[in-house]
Amino acid sequence: MNRNKIVLAIVLLVLGILFVVTTCYRTGGKSKGRALPPGTHGVCVTEVIQTSNYTYLQVDENNNKFWIAVVKVEAKNGDSVYYSQAYEMKNFVSKELGRTFTSVFFVQDPANKLPGTEKQVQQPLTPKRAEIKRWSEVSVETPKGGITIADLYKNPGNYNGKTVVIRGVVVRYNGQIMNKNWVHIQDGSEYSEKFDLTVTTMDSLVVGRTATFKGIVALNKDFGAGYSYDVIIEQAKASDIK
User: Is the model's pTM score more than 0.90?
Assistant: First the structure.
């Protein structure tokens, strides 16, 4: 009887592996036999690790396994992920996991459908629809002569039209929308439950990095098409990126 149970367990394990492999073949791993657009990656998820802010995915692309990270999302083995914008970070330390990744690609534009196909579903990464959660364990030292996010939200009128210096962790990055890059930062401070600040810049950033921004404060800014902000920093230059 025990032997039969062992055999059954082995059979189920093999079937599970075959399911993931064949799913990968049909979807991300082989892109359903379709040629991907230039610069687009199609991968298949083989392992999922969830944290407070990120979802880490071990993926397979043409029999090459590596790790990617996306803003937290539901995912499971066998899922397909398509992307074209990613930044590699080597020897990346996840404090929450207590683990160092030899290499991990932080993906900026994950999608679960091949670009150009019907019913494409993509993460809500555009500024007007971003749902930003508070990151845990964020503690940023205020730069000399600078302010905090709490300072800005507490007295926004004092800074309207003025150039300020502020430092924060990049929690979301959207490149080249309306000819500029949109960055969401947090520094661990808050005022009246406001803890996230949008910054526009021409500089390229990576989610998870800490940077100092020097830019102009604008209030009640409406860019049209739903892109409106009570407080925003514009024309910022990023420096001291770590």
Answer: no
